[in-house]
Write a structure and sequence with these properties.
Blueprint (H helix, E strand, L loop, with lengths): L1 E14 L2 E14 L3 E5 L6 H8 L7 E6 L2 E2 L5 H8 L2 E5 L10 H11 L4 H14 L15 H13 L5 E5 L7 H18 L2 E6 L2 H7 L2 E6 L2 E7 H6 L4 H8 L16 E6 L8 H9 L4 E10 L2 E9 L4 H13 L3 E5 L4
Parallel strand pairs: 3-8, 3-9, 6-7, 7-8
Antiparallel strand pairs: 1-2, 1-4, 4-5, 9-10, 11-13, 11-14, 12-13
C-alpha cells in the first residue's frame, strides 16, 4: 500500500527572468513502512522533491497524495493538520538555541495545544527512545552534532507522525556518528512502523538502511528500485557515478593507466573465495585493483572492485569470462576526467 504517491510532478522556479526546471515529471510511489532513499548529486533536485512531499514547495504541475489525499486539494488549515503527520529532520538540526532539550521536544506539542504535563511526559518517552535521558536540561550549545540530531529526531516524532522525512540528516556528521543515527532511524522504522524517506547524496547511507531507492539527476527520476538491484546492476550514468564515483578512490595511483576497466560485484556466496587469485593463476595475466570496498546491503555482505585489465585483448576477454564463470557480476566502467 502506497502512503506517498507522486504523480507527474514538475517544479519550476523563476530566477532573474529565467525559468529553471528543478523537477521534471516525477512519478514515484513509496510504500507504507518502507525506508526509501532519494539520492542525487548536489543540485539534482532531491531536496526540492522532499519539500514537495509535505507541500512546503507546491508543484508547478502534477500532484502529491499522502494516504490517498491530494495535498493540492486541501485548505491551508487542512494542510497544516496533514503536515503534523509528517515529521522532518534536517542537516543543520534547526533546534531552538534558547530552549533546553526537553523544551525543544515539547515545542511542537505546545503549538498544538497539548497540556504541558502531557507534553513533558511524551518528551521524556522520546528522550528514552533516542537514548538521551540524561540531557533533558542541556541546551543545544552543550551537545555534540550527533546528540543534536537525536534531539531533532525526538522532536520530529513528538506528534506521532506516520512519515519521517530526513533531508541530508547525516551530512554534517562524522562516519561513526552517522552510523549510530542510521541505526536509530532503522530502529524507529522497525519498532514504530513509521515510513522513512531519506534524502542524501551518499550511496553509503542508502546501502546501510534503505530498502528501495530513487536516483534523481538534473531534476529527472532516472532510476528506481530495490537498493540491492541497483547496486549490482546500475543502468544509468548517474547511478554508476553515485556507486563508484567518477574518480577512483582507495588507490595510490595518480593516473588510471589501464585503458579498459571493469566493475565486479561479490555476493555472499563468492565474497570469501579467492576468485581474483584463482583467475590470475589460470589466465596468467596481471590486473590492477583500482578500488575495493564492501557494503552491508539489507543485512547481506556485498563487495565491489574496479579492476584495470592488461592491454592484451584476448587476456581481457579471458579474465572477464573467468570472473563470470565464478558467478560474479561484471560490467564495463568508464571514468572520463
Amino acid at each position: 500500500m502506497s502512503v506517498i504517491e507522486i504523480k507527474n510532478l514538475t517544479k519550476k522556479f523563476e530566477i532573474d527572468g529565467n525559468t529553471v526546471v528543478a523537477l521534471n515529471n516525477i512519478n514515484l510511489n513509496i510504500e507504507k513502512g518502507d525506508i526509501f532513499g532519494i539520492i542525487g548529486m548536489s543540485g539534482a533536485g532531491k531536496s526540492t522533491l522532499v519539500r514537495s512531499i509535505n507541500y512546503l514547495e507546491k508543484p508547478s504541475e502534477g500532484s502529491v497524495y499522502v494516504d490517498g489525499v491530494n495535498l493540492g486539494s486541501l485548505s491551508e488549515k487542512e494542510l497544516r493538520k496533514t503536515r503534523s503527520n509528517i515529521g522532518m529532520i534536517f542537516q543543520n538540526f534547526h533546534l531552538l538555541e534558547q530552549k533546553n532539550v526537553i523544551d525543544n521536544i515539547c515545542f511542537p506539542l505546545e503549538i498544538r495545544g497539548v497540556k504541558k504535563a502531557d507534553a513533558k511526559r511524551r518528551a521524556k518517552e522520546l528522550l528514552e527512545l533516542v537514548k538521551l535521558e540524561d540531557k533533558e536540561k542541556a541546551f543545544p550549545s552543550q551537545l555534540s552534532g550527533g546528540q543534536k540530531q537525536r534531539v531533532a529526531i525526538a522532536r520530529a516524532l513528538a506528534t506521532n507522525p506516520e512519515i519521517l522525512l530526513c533531508d541530508e540528516a547525516t551530512s554534517a556528521l562524522d562516519p561513526q556518528t552517522t552510523a549510530s543515527i542510521l541505526e536509530l532511524i532503522k530502529n524507529i522504522n522497525e519498532t514504530l512502523g513509521i515510513t522513512v524517506v531519506i534524502i542524501t547524496h551518499q550511496m553509503s547511507v542508502v546501502t546501510t538502511v534503505c530498502k528501495r531507492v530513487a536516483i534523481i539527476d538534473g531534476g529527472n527520476l532516472v532510476e528506481e528500485g530495490l537498493v540491492e538491484t541497483i547496486f549490482e546492476h546500475p543502468r544509468t550514468d548517474a547511478a554508476k557515478e553515485l556507486i563508484s564515483g567518477k574518480k577512483i578512490s582507495y588507490t595510490p595511483m595518480k593516473e588510471l593507466i589501464a585503458d579498459r576497466r571493469i566493475r565486479i560485484v561479490f555476493k555472499e556466496n563468492t565474497a570469501y573465495e579467492p576468485v581474483i587469485a584463482n583467475m590470475i593463476l589460470k589466465v596468467q595475466a596481471p590486473i590492477n585493483i583500482l578500488k575495493a570496498d564492501t557494503k552491508d546491503i539489507g543485512g547481506r555482505a556485498v563487495g565491489e572492485m574496479i579492476l584495470g585489465l592488461p592491454d592484451d585483448v584476448e587476456k581481457q576477454e579471458a579474465i572477464i569470462r573467468e570472473l563470470k564463470n565464478a558467478r560474479l557480476i561484471v560490467t564495463e566502467v568508464d571514468y572520463n576526467e
